[in-house]
Amino acid sequence: MPNIKSAKKKQRKDLNKTKQNDKYRRSIKSMFKDMKKGKVAKVTQKKLNSIIDKASKRKIIHKNKAARLKSRVSRFLKLKKKS
To answer: Which parts of the sequence are annotated with region: Disordered (predicted)?
Structure first.
């Protein structure tokens, strides 16, 4: 437990930031699950790419991971259209 006032403030800020970061991670994860279950109407490639880009821009996920996720989305939806 921090004793210094600025350390207490940083702890509060970190807690809020963690909540926001988790929100982005959960939304990406849940959209991927929806996509794989077949709820494609709910999940569009544009929407999912937008969320991934925002998370990457805010340094929540690494830029290479963002590129990999976007690639997987496009590949999955392309295969879905063929079948």
So the answer is: 1-25
Contact predicate 45/81, CB 8 Å? no
CATH number of the domain to which 69 belongs = 1.20.58
Residue-number span of the structural domain to which 13 is assigned: 5-82
pTM of this structure: 0.80
Element (H, E) at 6: helix 5-37
Number of domains in the chain: 1
Pull the structure tokens for residue 82. Answer: 């063929």
Tallying the residues shown for the chain, one arrives at: 83
Helix (H/G/I), strand (E/B), else coil: 62:
coil
